[in-house]
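Hi support team,

I've been running sequence recovery on a batch of backbones for a student project. Most finish fine, but this one hangs at about 90% for roughly twenty minutes before it completes. I'm not sure whether the input is malformed or the queue is just slow. I've pasted the C-alpha cells below so you can try to reproduce it. Let me know if you need the job ID as well.

Thanks,
M.K.
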C-alpha cells in the first residue's frame, strides 16, 4: 500500500463505501489518453472515461495547453457585473452547436448546479409571464439530476432521497420510469415498447391541472440508474404533451451532450427540442469543473423585461463562467471539431453494441441495454445480497484485470471513450468476461 493510501482517514469519499474502500484503497495518481496509472506504475484501462466526463481521453494535450496558458493569464475574475472574454466566447460557441432556437447560456460548476439553475429559470420564466401559479415540477422515477435539493427532489433514485425525504422541495411529482424488462430485455438501441408511458404526464396534468405545472425534467437516456434508453417515440410524445399544456421541457444532458450519443446533444439524435438543456461533464472533458444551462430564446427573453438597470435573475455562482474552465471548454469544442470526435463516437457504436450484447447469454446476465456510447449489462442479484455480485465484479476488474469500471448495485455500466481504440475496447470486455466467469 502506498504512503498516500495509509493517510486516508481525513478523506470522506463521495458515493463510496468508505470503510470498505479504506481496507484496500484503489488510488489513481496519473492518467494518459485511455489509461490511469497508480503510484506503483500499474496501468489501468478506463472503461468509464472518467465519470462519463472525459470522452476525448485523459490529459489531452490541447486542453492541458489551453488551461496552462489561461491560468497564467487570467486566473479568476468576478462573474457578477464584470465578466471575462473566455466565458463570452464559450457561451457563443456552445449555443452555436445547440439545437435551433436555443441561443443563451448560463454557466455553473457542475451538473447538480445546472439542474437547480434550470429549475429556477423555469419557475422565473412563468412568473415573468404572469403565470406565477405554475410552480409544480415534474421529474421521473429512477431519474438522476444531481444531489442538490432541487435535483434530488425531481430525481427518482431512492437511496439518494431516502434520508432527506421530509426535506425534499414541495410541489414535485414524478412520472413513471420507462424500464420494462419483461417486454424489452436485450434490446439493441431504443426499446420498442413503452412510448405510452409518456402519457403519465397527461395523467399528472389531470391530477394537478396542467396550468399549475412549470416544467418536466428528464434525462433523454437515463444514465446513473443503469442506462435506460427511451422507448421509440417516447420523447416526442412528452414534447407534445408539454406543448399542449404550456409546460417547459428540460433535457438533462449532463451525460448525453458532447458526443456520447454521436452528436452534440441527445436533442439532435431524437429530433426533439427541449426548452432548456442542462450540461456539464463533456463541456470541459472533465478537466475543470463546469456546467452550462442552455436556454431557448422564448425562455430567456421573458426575463428581459422591466427596468434595464435591474438584475433579471437573482442567481449565479462565484465561479460561473470561470476563465480557466471556459478556456478548457473552448479547447474541447476545438478538438471535438478538429478531431471529428462526435463522428468517431458514432462510428464506434456498432462495435460497442456487439461487445455488450455478446454477454446476453452469460449465466449471470438478465439484461443488456445500449444507446450511443452508453451501455449496461444487468446481472441477476445474488439471493439475499443485492449488489454483492456487482461489487465483487468492480474490485476484481481493478485488481485482477487492471480495468476501472463502474457498477450501480448489480448493473454494470459502460462509458467508453468517444475516441476509443476498437481493439482496446474489445480487450477490456474480454477482461470483463473473465471476471464474470470467475464470480459466483
Ligand atoms: N444530471 C445527470 C443526468 C447526471 O448524470 C448530474 C446531473 C450531476 O452532476 P454533478 O456534476 O453535480 O455530479 C449527473 C451526474 C454514474 C454517475 O454512476 C453519474 C453522475 C454522477 C455520479 C455517478 O452514472 N452523473
Amino acid at each position: 500500500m502506498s504512503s498516500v493510501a495509509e493517510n486516508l482517514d481525513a478523506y470522506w469519499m463521495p458515493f463510496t463505501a468508505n470503510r470498505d474502500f479504506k481496507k484496500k484503497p484503489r488510488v489513481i495518481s496519473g492518467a494518459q489518453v485511455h489509461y490511469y496509472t497508480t503510484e506503483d506504475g500499474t496501468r489501468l484501462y478506463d472503461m468509464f472515461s472518467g465519470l462519463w466526463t472525459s470522452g476525448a481521453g485523459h490529459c489531452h494535450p490541447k486542453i492541458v495547453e489551453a488551461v496552462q496558458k489561461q491560468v497564467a493569464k487570467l486566473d479568476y475574475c468576478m462573474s457578477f457585473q464584470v465578466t471575462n472574454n473566455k466565458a463570452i466566447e464559450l457561451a457563443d460557441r456552445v449555443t452555436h452547436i445547440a439545437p435551433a432556437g436555443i441561443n443563451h447560456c448560463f454557466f455553473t460548476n457542475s451538473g447538480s448546479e445546472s439542474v437547480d439553475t434550470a429549475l429556477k429559470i423555469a419557475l422565473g420564466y412563468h412568473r415573468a409571464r404572469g403565470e406565477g401559479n405554475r410552480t409544480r415540477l415534474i421529474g421521473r422515477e429512477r431519474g438522476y439530476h444531481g444531489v442538490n435539493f432541487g435535483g434530488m427532489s425531481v430525481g427518482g433514485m431512492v437511496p439518494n432521497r431516502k434520508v432527506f425525504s421530509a426535506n425534499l422541495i414541495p410541489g414535485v411529482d414524478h412520472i413513471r420510469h420507462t424500464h420494462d424488462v419483461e417486454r424489452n430485455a436485450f434490446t439493441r438501441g431504443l426499446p420498442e415498447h413503452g412510448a405510452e408511458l409518456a402519457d403519465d404526464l397527461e395523467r399528472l396534468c389531470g391530477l394537478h391541472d396542467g396550468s399549475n405545472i412549470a416544467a418536466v425534467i428528464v434525462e433523454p437516456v437515463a444514465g446513473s440508474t443503469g442506462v435506460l434508453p427511451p422507448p421509440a417515440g417516447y420523447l416526442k410524445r412528452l414534447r407534445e404533451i408539454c406543448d399542449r399544456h404550456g409546460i417547459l421541457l428540460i433535457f438533462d444532458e449532463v451525460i448525453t451532450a458532447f458526443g456520447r450519443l454521436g452528436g452534440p446533444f441527445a436533442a439532435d439524435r431524437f429530433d426533439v427540442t427541449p426548452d432548456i438543456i442542462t450540461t456539464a461533464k463533456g463541456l470541459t472533458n472533465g478537466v475543470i469543473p463546469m456546467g452550462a444551462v442552455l436556454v431557448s430564446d422564448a425562455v430567456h427573453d421573458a426575463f428581459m423585461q422591466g427596468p434595464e438597470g435591474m438584475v433579471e435573475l437573482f442567481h449565479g455562482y462565484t465561479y460561473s463562467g470561470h476563465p480557466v474552465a471556459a478556456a478548457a471548454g473552448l479547447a474541447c469544442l476545438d478538438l471535438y471539431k478538429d478531431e471529428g470526435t462526435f463522428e468517431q463516437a458514432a462510428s464506434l457504436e456498432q462495435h460497442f453494441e456487439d461487445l455488450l450484447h455478446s454477454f446476453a447469454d452469460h449465466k449471470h446476465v438478465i439484461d443488456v441495454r445500449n444507446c450511443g456510447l452508453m451501455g449496461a449489462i444487468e446481472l441477476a442479484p445474488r439471493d439475499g445480497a443485492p449488489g454483492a455480485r456487482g461489487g465483487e465484479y468492480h474490485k476484481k476488474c481493478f485488481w485482477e484485470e487492471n480495468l476501472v469500471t463502474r457498477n450501480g448495485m448489480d448493473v454494470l455500466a459502460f462509458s467508453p471513450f468517444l475516441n476509443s481504440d476498437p481493439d482496446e475496447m474489445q480487450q477490456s470486455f474480454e477482461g470483463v468476461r473473465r471476471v464474470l466467469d470467475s464470480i459466483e
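--
Follow-up from support: It reproduced on our side and the slowdown came from queue contention, not your input. Residues 51-52, 110-112, 115, 144-146, 219, 223-224, 252, 254-255, 280, 406, 408, 413 surround PXG (CB under 6 Å). No action needed from you.
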